[in-house]
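Can anyone check this?
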Amino acid sequence: MASFVYVARETGSNREIHSSIEAATEQVAIAALLNRNMLVLSIQEKVSKQGRTSGGRVPLSDLVIFTRQLATMVDAGLAIVQSLQALADQTTNKVMRDVIRDICTRVESGDSFSEALQKHPKVFNRLYVCMVGAGERGGLLAEILSRLAVYLENTARLRKKVKSAMMYPTVVTVVAILITIFLLVKVVPVFGQIFASFNATLPTPTLYLIKISDLVKHYLLLFILLGGAAGYGWYYFVQTPAGRLFWDSRRIRIPIFGPIAHKICLARFTRTLASLIRSGVPILEVLQIVSQTVGNMVMEKAIKVAALDIERGEGIATALGRHPVFPTMIIRMVTAGEQTGKIDSMLERIADFLDEEIETTLSGLTALIEPILIVFLGVVVGGMVICMFLPIFKLPEIVNGH
């Protein structure tokens, strides 16, 4: 049973009532209120803290498994309710299990599968719901679910590659920072006390290192707080529309990492566009959905402007070609797809090509980052060691002078 918040007016007293009602569906709730001689002015399902229903987010891997297994069951001829019940029983993720059971209840109450999915926007995004809706209308639900599973698997694989490529440099950088802080706080001050007892002039690099050590030792907590505040401020700024536009317009221009981020957005754009066009979703609705899932605000604005041009009668390639964020190679291949009537296949090929380029770039970047990090560690840690040992090399002069 779902809970609905409503505003209604009593037909006898003309009094406006704000309250809630428990019912299986919205239609059942409206019928129950009408039986109470109430004219429903507005009604909506009660929103919980985690979303429109009690479910929260689920990992992409669980969504991939759910979609793949459901596609197999539907293709085998099982009813959608029976398939959902079986998946709910075997799912280990509690949130996913509750979501599947809620969807099953809604479908049994008369909602379509896509309408039931729409009640869980944190689990099933608009792309997912629209493709399922197109499959229901065309009688190709099993085929659409299979395409969705392939799309989600490609997305998960690309995300895993990016995470694995960034894991090594991230860990090494964190370890290097921790070692540097430990040396500055614990080791350098000991050497500083020993050198101070000589009452001699120390080499300039050693003096600077000791001063830096004193600053870090006395103001380490302040530096951590300032760093945390700066990180939180940047995160908050990026969440705003202006901040997101600022960051998205610059991150695709960053040396080395910028082209990778740009290709990831392009791969997501072309693969999503291909999946929706192949599923029979109208092109204007396709572009609206793709603009929300591409993951870059610059590209999102370009797609929305292109959608307006397409609505006026222009071709997809012509409309997209006006925006520099889309490379010439993609525009030419989209043009060829429009001319041959196989734009979905051409977009799929572009996405596969971009995925291969991303994988190759990430592999080369991982191989390049390793020696760079080694050099970085050598310069930082080695430089500190040299600064501390410079007075020892001049120890005879210091002792004689003393």
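Reply from J.R.: I decoded it. The mean pLDDT is 82.
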